[in-house]
Amino acid sequence: MLYRHIEEKADEVLKNENFYTAGFDIFKFIKKLNIEVVPKKFSDDISGFLAINNGKVVISFNENEGKERKRFTVAHELGHFFLHSKNQPLFIDKTPKIMYRNNASSTGEVLIEREANAFAAALLMPQKLIIEEIDKLQENDASKIISKLADKFKVSEQAMSFRLSNLGYYIG
Question: Alpha-carbon distance 141 to 171, whole Å?
């Protein structure tokens, strides 16, 4: 698996905070981590950002987007927090380090954005829990499987489809 260390980190974080369950409340999870979440009205090309300033961590998301997109955006920003904030200088002349989730983030062209996306997918859709849910399903239709899993994990069908594909499931 290409991002095994990211899968392991997401599992570790969920288990340490007792949130290792399908469709968990990500906003309660973030509150438990003492991270402030602030909804904002952004332009359509910005989904969210992570800002760290003087030890205070803030995640903001575009309140105009759908609930599944908001969950993924917030999880993506958590990816930056857990994977990238400790490895880079956070401040330059007291200016906070800000990482945005925008249209470029979705293309996968930038390594840290691909990693944050992988973290978000692993956090919201842990591999072990997906396998458990697939084993419970009495369904052979791929689109119905994707739909049921997406509902269970509170993600979009597109996110679930990508996740299953990245885990090696054939969706045809």
Answer: 10
